[in-house]
Structures are given as structure tokens and as C-alpha cells.
Write a structure and sequence with these properties.
The chain is 39% helix and 22% strand. It is an alpha/beta fold and 161 residues long.
Length: 161
């Protein structure tokens, strides 16, 4: 049974001949009772270099600093990569040597290993889930909207600089 819930999302622009891939991410950490514990809502609206799913691992690392030892973190994200990586928990991920079921390494393997290390050091279990309740569906939609809004604002701000 999860002790905390993390809703996270990324939004970005893909690499093209005219610009590098950049992204933003948003996250909100809740107690199991539904109380918001922390978020990056007030973080600066800046673009980070790299493909957008890199932001998933940055968000997990940031949010996990607010968790007590022994926590079980249920993670919800519109990006399916999280379900593929953390859908069976950390033990399975380690047994597969941070690789997909087809034995190929994940694209973001270094970031996955880093998050794994943080979780192990902090005695936290990470588990990606699909939303089940109306609250989970609502919070997932809200965080996705917020990430897209953050991207629009960051691009606008970047264009004005």
C-alpha cells in the first residue's frame, strides 16, 4: 500500500535542425490521505536541455527528498515510460540490470540508475501505477496541463530574452 503519491509530467520540444531538444517538468507530492506535501509549482519557468522524458527522473529525484525512510511512492505520469521502467518496482528493475524486457538498455539508463540509487539509499520503494480513483485521474490531468502551461510560458519567456 503506497504511503505517498507523486503526480508528474513533462512537456518539451523535439530536436530539429533549428533548435536542440528542451523540456520542462512539473510534479506534486501528496500524502496518501490527499494532502499536498510539496511541489515544484513555484520553481522558475526555465527550459532544460535534452529530451522531455529526462524531466521525469529529475522530478522523482527532487520529490523523493521530501519522503521519510520506508516510504512507498506511487507515481502517476501521462508518459508511459514511467510505467515501463518502474511498473514492477525496484527489485525487478535491478534484476533486469536496468534493461527492458527485450534486454536492450533504456535510453535514459544513467538517470534511471541514479534515481534507483537515491531510492535505495533513502529506503524508498518506487512504483509507477495507472490511476484508479477519480482523484488520481483528476490530479494526473492537472499536472499534465500544468506542465504544458509551464512549457508555453518558458518558451514565451525564452523568445523575449
Amino acid at each position: 500500500m503506497p504511503t505517498h503519491k507523486l503526480f508528474l509530467s513533462v512537456a518539451g520540444i523535439k530536436k530539429s535542425p533549428f533548435h536542440a531538444a528542451q523540456h520542462v517538468y512539473a510534479w506534486r507530492l501528496f500524502s496518501n490521505s490527499g494532502e499536498i506535501l510539496s511541489s515544484n509549482d513555484d520553481a522558475p519557468w526555465v527550459l532544460f536541455d535534452g529530451p522531455d522524458n529526462l524531466g521525469l527522473y529529475s522530478a522523482i529525484a527532487q520529490a523523493s527528498t521530501d519522503l521519510p525512510k520506508g516510504s512507498i511512492l506511487a507515481m502517476f505520469a501521462p508518459q508511459e515510460e514511467l510505467l515501463h521502467v518502474f511498473g514492477e518496482g525496484l527489485t525487478s528493475l535491478k534484476q533486469r540490470d536496468f534493461r527492458k524486457r527485450n534486454k536492450k538498455p533504456y535510453v535514459h539508463r544513467d538517470q534511471i540508475k541514479s534515481v534507483y540509487g537515491l531510492a535505495v539509499d533513502s529506503d524508498i520503494e518506487l512504483l509507477a501505477l495507472n490511476p484508479n480513483s477519480s482523484d488520481e485521474f483528476e490530479n494526473l490531468g492537472l499536472i499534465g496541463d500544468f506542465a504544458r502551461e509551464r512549457l508555453r510560458e518558458a518558451l514565451e519567456q525564452d523568445a523575449n530574452d
